[in-house]
Specification:
Blueprint: H1 2-7, H2 18-21, H3 35-46, H4 68-79, H5 87-91, E1 103-108, E2 126-131, H6 149-170
Parallel strand pairs: 1-2
Length: 175
């Protein structure tokens, strides 16, 4: 079902083969097609550390052994760049994320990326929300009758939190 959102977003294709459509890139789960896929591939080479294997037994992705060395070789041959494994840490507060403020970290518990997310509140304004039964970015998508109640609740919480941050900023009391 999740792969159908990408590979069959129109719902008009009666059958599709993700193994024929899969395109190798710096993201072991595939980058998709088109110019946005090329941008994601480059970003996965330079800013985001995505080294993990897929085995098609415990995940929906093709079996792909993916190591740091394989990623580095791929990125250098494709883009002429070497992965910057500490880029995220360097550019986003490193080990001092608590110095930031007014960030909501939302993770769906069905999201394969959730393991790399922030799963607990770090402060009163660094808030973690888990969307039970939710996949990648579910709370950021438009409302759908098939959404689990947790997605509707996450959207309500996020709107309320952001509303409060804006109100406090306007009153000169924000962080």
């Amino acid at each position: 079902m999740a792969d159908g959102v990408f590979y069959n977003s129109t719902g008009q294709v009666p059958c599709f083969d993700i193994y024929k459509l899969y395109q190798k890139c710096a993201d072991p789960t595939g980058c998709g097609t088109g110019s946005d896929a090329q941008a994601w591939d480059y970003q996965a080479c330079t800013e985001i550390n995505l080294t993990f294997n897929s085995n098609n037994a415990t995940d929906m992705f093709p079996e792909i052994p993916f190591t740091d060395a394989a990623r580095e070789q791929y990125c250098f041959s494709k883009w002429g760049v070497r992965p910057r494994t500490l880029w995220l840490q360097t550019h986003f507060w490193g080990n001092d994320l608590a110095a930031a403020s007014n960030i909501i970290f939302s993770n769906g518990d069905l999201d394969p990326w959730a393991g790399g997310g922030i799963g607990r509140n770090l402060s009163a304004s660094l808030i973690a929300i888990t969307v039970k039964g939710g996949a990648h970015h579910l709370d950021l998508r438009a409302s759908n009758p098939a959404d689990p109640p947790s997605a509707r609740e996450a959207r309500r919480q996020e709107a309320s939190i952001i509303h409060d941050w804006v109100r406090l900023a306007r009153e000169g009391l924000g962080s």
